[in-house]
């Protein structure tokens, strides 16, 4: 009877022991501890950086370099780089440097649905125009 009880207890222990849950929890603990160590390293780096910027001159230099801030009474002038001929390339992101569009090729500002709304001034058309964002 005792050997049968030992075998049954062993089978129950193996069958119901949450080995996968413990393994999963251990991997989560390892991941979390790695994240904590990374945050601690970032904290140390920020602490050394804050000590480096602790003086007023260093803070002023940082404000000028990274945030383009100036002291009161000063003005900021930025000189943009150009191409070899000294002109800014037309492919830049500034829309003011794009070529002009001919008026004949411009899209019309009035759509057919707008002309229909202008012709019908009844209550239903005004309601549809008011709720037009639902389309």
Summarize the structure in words.
This protein is mostly helical. It has a domain at 17-71. Helix content is 57%, strand content 0%. The protein has five helices and no strands. It has helices at 2-16, 19-52, 56-67, 112-119, 123-130. It starts with a helix and ends in a 5-residue tail after the last helix. The model has no long low-confidence stretch (mean pLDDT 79).
Mean pLDDT: 79
Number of strands: 0
Element order: H for helix, E for strand: HHHHH
- Runs in which pLDDT lies below 50 for 5 or more consecutive residues are none
Sheet with the most strands, sense and barrel status: none
Describe what is shown at a glance:
With 135 residues, the chain is an all-alpha fold. It has helices spanning 2-16, 19-52, 56-67, 112-119, 123-130.
SSE topology sketch:
Elements (H helix, E strand, L loop, with lengths): L1 H15 L2 H34 L3 H12 L44 H8 L3 H8 L5
List key phrases describing it.
single chain; about 140 residues; mainly alpha
């Amino acid at each position: 009877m005792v050997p049968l009880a030992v075998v049954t207890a062993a089978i129950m222990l193996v069958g119901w022991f949450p080995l996968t849950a413990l393994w999963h929890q251990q991997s989560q603990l390892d991941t979390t501890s790695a994240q904590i160590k990374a945050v601690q390293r970032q904290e140390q780096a920020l602490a050394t950086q804050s000590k480096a910027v602790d003086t007023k001159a260093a803070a002023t230099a940082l404000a000028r370099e990274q945030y383009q801030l100036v002291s009161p009474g000063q003005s900021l002038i930025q000189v943009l780089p150009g191409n070899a001929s000294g002109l800014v390339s037309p492919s830049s992101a500034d829309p003011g440097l794009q070529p002009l569009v001919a008026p004949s090729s411009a899209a019309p500002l009035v759509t057919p649905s707008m002309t229909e709304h202008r012709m019908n001034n009844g209550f239903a058309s005004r309601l549809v125009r008011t709720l037009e964002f639902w389309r």
